[in-house]
Specification:
Layout: H1 4-15, H2 18-27, H3 29-32, H4 41-64, H5 75-90, H6 97-114, H7 123-129, H8 135-146, H9 149-183, H10 190-203, H11 213-219, H12 231-238, H13 243-252, H14 262-265, H15 268-272, H16 282-296, H17 304-318, H18 322-333
Helix pairs in contact: 1-4, 4-5, 4-6, 5-6, 5-8, 7-8, 8-9, 9-13, 12-13
Length: 334
């Protein structure tokens, strides 16, 4: 793993002491006679250029590698920020040719991994929809702004289709739980239930009334941008309004966008791989990195009583899944 982050931190710190280096050069002749000499004005300008270039990637890496907050819904926005920076830097050949050349080279490397947007995990885009400040509008806007019109249109349809399939899948579990609850009610309301069923049938004929949660959520105005906005709390409050979407949001927003936490994102290779452990399999290295992050992470204060009700609901929702029950019974027998 490269040490570009160390280079960035070193240069950023050195720039703050530019005058001190100049003063040292004037007062200490031995310093000026060192191999390579003292940094001149061109060196300082190049350092400023490198810091400007690396700062974007340093900050974005920290954001998307966090392990204590939601990252899945922000990755596509950060991806758009990188593309926008490339376009801006590559257009400044006259003013800053060094920055422009670095941007051209970096974009070529970046596109090797993320150039084909159609190969991105579709959940990267679906997660954006579950940010009430962005919803589907941001996905459509970002794709049309930075990619070909046909590619954007095709991917937008694919994202919509994936969201619909997710909703239908989660609706099955949700409806099954509701049906089991209704079956346990008193059996003295057959006539009332019959009349209500007729009422439901007639009302469903009205297309304006027959909107599912997805339609309602997407057609409602987006939330305004606020630095203190808590996306998890928003879904907790609105889960009664969007019960099925709330279940999807709970799972989608819980996904880490990076497999390595920010605490281990920089210079991890030297701590995990060494001359004595250079033949470890990828799975073993991944396990070591994850375990290292868990063991070294700062403790989080969690109020168990506050989340007890949510945990009980989660157990009830997972109970109908046979594969999970089989796994739990096997664990208990062991």
């Amino acid at each position: 793993m490269t040490r570009w982050n160390s280079t960035y931190i070193m240069l950023e710190s050195a720039l703050k002491f530019q005058k001190a280096f100049k003063r040292l050069c004037e007062k200490c002749l031995e310093y000026e006679m060192l191999e390579g000499g003292a940094p001149n004005n061109d060196d300082w300008e190049n350092a400023k250029c490198f810091v400007k270039f690396l700062k974007l990637f340093f900050e974005i890496t920290k954001k998307v590698s966090g392990s204590t907050y939601v990252t899945s819904s922000t990755y596509f926005m950060e991806h758009c920020n990188i593309l926008d920076a490339f376009n801006t830097w590559m257009g400044c050949h006259k003013d800053d040719p060094i920055l422009a050349n670095m941007a051209i080279n970096m974009k070529a490397k970046y596109e090797k991994y993320w150039g084909d947007v159609s190969k991105m995990n579709i959940l990267v885009f679906v997660a954006v929809i579950f940010d009430p400040r962005c919803k589907f509008q941001f996905v459509s806007w970002g794709l049309n702004l930075y990619y070909d019109e046909k590619i954007a249109a095709s991917l937008c349809e694919k994202v919509k289709g994936s969201l619909t399939k997710l909703f239908e899948t989660y609706s099955c579990f949700s409806n099954k739980s509701q049906a089991e609850g209704v079956a346990q009610e008193v059996e003295g309301s057959q006539v009332v239930t019959s009349q209500f069923a007729k009422f439901e049938k007639d009302m469903n004929k009205d297309p304006n009334l027959n909107k599912n949660e997805v339609d309602l959520y997407l057609t409602e105005p987006r939330e305004t941008q606020n630095p203190d906005f808590d996306i998890l709390n928003w879904w907790k409050v609105n889960s009664t309004k969007y019960p099925t979407l709330g279940l999807i949001a709970r799972d989608i927003l819980a996904m880490p966008i990076s497999t390595v936490a920010s605490e281990s994102a920089f210079s991890t290779g030297g701590r995990v791989l060494s001359c004595y452990r250079s033949s470890l399999t990828p799975h073993t290295v991944e396990a070591l990195i994850c375990a290292q992050n868990w063991l070294r992470s700062s403790p989080l204060t969690v109020d168990i009583e506050e989340h007890l009700e949510d945990l009980e609901k989660l157990e009830e929702e997972l109970a109908p899944i046979p594969q999970l029950n089989e796994g739990l019974s096997d664990m208990e027998s062991d």
